[in-house]
């Protein structure tokens, strides 16, 4: 299989899942998760029509995407991995959306970096939807308070919510819970669903599905 045929197959599956859910196809975007992949693989996806990419490390993303963005100015890049506060400035310079905002200190640093760079990016709040102690993300019951802090106190533009349900569990109840939170707080974007469960996520209201393996193949470097 090639990246371009995988991409076509995925887009067809997304379209079918949308039809089954009674949602317009353009309500769901495929994000190509290109962590650990080389620039050549990313380029192959771009040439096949892909424009939205997700990376989980700032420096890796910068090295890979800075040259590609010169060549393809309409790329959109999201950060989907944990962000250390000391990399907030780099992140604000590089990404269009930071999907992993999950603590007040990071909100502070992102706000400061935006003022400094005169950039205005969108953030999604990462929710620890399974309330797992070892995992990143704000707990569901803290979301309202944290959202208030980000919007009122730090004037961040919060566009949506992101989650990673617990491994080896049925993801559907978690997807539905994230949707409920998004509706309650009037947030339009829901980043949820990966290679193994994106069709279920679409049925539950995902607006972005984050797909790595099913597009590029198995990762040789194992990493969350
Ligand atoms: C790696 C990763 C993905 C993609 O996972 P696949 O199973 O390869 O599709 C999605 N979201 C996040 C946050 C990731 O780190």
Short key terms for the protein model shown above:
224 residues, alpha/beta, 8-stranded parallel beta sheet, 9 helices, 8 strands, globular, binds pyridoxal-5'-phosphate
Percent range for β-strand residues:
15-25%
Number of strands: 8
Overall pLDDT level: 97
Number of helices: 9
End-to-end C-alpha gap: 24 Å
Bulk shape: globular
Helix/strand-derived class? Answer: alpha/beta
**Helicity, in percent?**
40-55%
Helix-strand sequence: HEHEHEHEHEHEHEHEH
Q: What Rg do the Cα atoms give?
A: 17 Å
Give a brief description.
43% of the residues lie in helices and 17% in strands.
Account of the 3D structure:
This protein is an alpha/beta fold and 224 residues long. The protein has nine helices and eight strands. It has helices spanning 3-21, 39-47, 58-71, 88-94, 104-117, 143-153, 172-184, 198-203, 213-216, and strands at residues 29-33, 52-55, 76-79, 97-101, 122-127, 157-163, 189-191, 208-211. α2 (39-47) links the parallel β1 and β2. α4 crosses α5 (104-117). It is globular. The model has no long low-confidence stretch (mean pLDDT 97). The structure holds pyridoxal-5'-phosphate.
């Amino acid at each position: 299989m090639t990246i371009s045929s995988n991409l076509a197959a995925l887009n067809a599956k997304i379209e079918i899942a949308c039809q089954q859910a009674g949602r317009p196809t353009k309500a769901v975007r495929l994000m190509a998760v290109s962590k650990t992949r080389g620039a050549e693989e990313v380029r192959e996806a771009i040439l096949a029509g892909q424009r939205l990419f997700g990376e989980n490390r700032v420096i890796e993303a910068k090295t890979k995407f800075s040259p590609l963005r010169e060549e393809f100015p309409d790329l959109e890049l999201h950060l989907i991995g944990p962000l250390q506060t000391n990399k907030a400035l780099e992140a604000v310079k590089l990404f269009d959306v930071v999907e992993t905002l999950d603590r007040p200190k990071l909100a502070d640093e992102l706000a400061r970096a935006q003022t400094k760079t005169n950039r205005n990016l969108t953030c999604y709040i990462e929710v620890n939807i399974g309330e797992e102690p070892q995992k990143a993300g704000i707990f569901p019951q803290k979301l309202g308070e944290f959202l208030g802090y980000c919007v009122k106190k730090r004037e961040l533009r919060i566009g949506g919510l992101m989650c990673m349900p617990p491994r080896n569990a049925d993801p559907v109840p978690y997807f539905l819970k994230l949707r409920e939170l998004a509706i309650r707080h009037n947030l339009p974007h829901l980043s949820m669903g990966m290679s193994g469960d994106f069709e279920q996520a679409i049925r539950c209201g995902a607006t972005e599905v984050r797909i790595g393996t099913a597009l590029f193949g198995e990762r040789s470097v194992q990493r969350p």
